[in-house]
Specification:
This protein is an all-alpha fold. Helix content is 77%, strand content 1%. The protein has a two-stranded antiparallel ribbon with strand order 1-2. Strand 1 and strand 2 form a beta hairpin. It is globular and about 50 Å long. It starts with a helix and ends with a helix.
Amino acid sequence: MFSQPQLVFELAVLGMGVGLLSGLLGIGGAMVMVPALTFILTDKGYPHEYTVKAAVATSLATICFTSLSSVRAHHRRGAVRWDIWKVLAPGILVGSLAGAQGAVALPGNSLGLLFAVFVAFSATQMLVGRKPGAHHRPLPGAFGTFAAGTVIGVASALVGAGGAFVSVPFLTWCNVGIHEAVATSAALGFPIALAGTIGYLWAGRELASQGPGTFGYLYLPGLLFISLASVVLAPLGARIAHSLDVKPLRRGFAVMLYGVSLYFFLR
């Protein structure tokens, strides 16, 4: 792993980009990590059927580390609704475990197509920039909240994301303030990532090595270097965000994401 300085450099630059964009634009790392890792693994000659699944699994594992830094910052501001976290987390754990098994069972092309839809949806949200309106709906009962958590977990595990693309709209729809919704979604990212990673590890427990640095569906060099670099750069991105108008950046990044989505459709 360390004997390939170009690979280490590529993964570190990717991690820095993920951390910077996460802090600057408030996006999840999956939109950057999954396509970049897919490209890197394909370029290094890993099997085509393996690359997208490994990219999604490694993205989730990375979120285990990056989400902790984000949650700590939100918790210090008192923005995390731990009362909501407690009722959503059980469903999320079940959904993330199930979603990982479903992703592994899908053909690589189908998973890539699903990710393309996710990226296009996320790009549209960024481009439109629609603000949540005022609602007066309470959270559903115990069964409804568990079901919502399960859906969030399944969707997140399928595309390797932290779940904010589903949980933030859901929470704001249930009359949770946008800042609390974002903070609580960040806290929910850890159980999503942890359960999803465990699910991928279980699914790949008997998988033969697909190449250097692989452990089941995890690409260990990517996990190591992306996690380290992204954790370091995320605070810098957050500081820059407070001193700049990031709306033009978000629109430009959204246009780039449409290109990423098209790449996965064609691939």
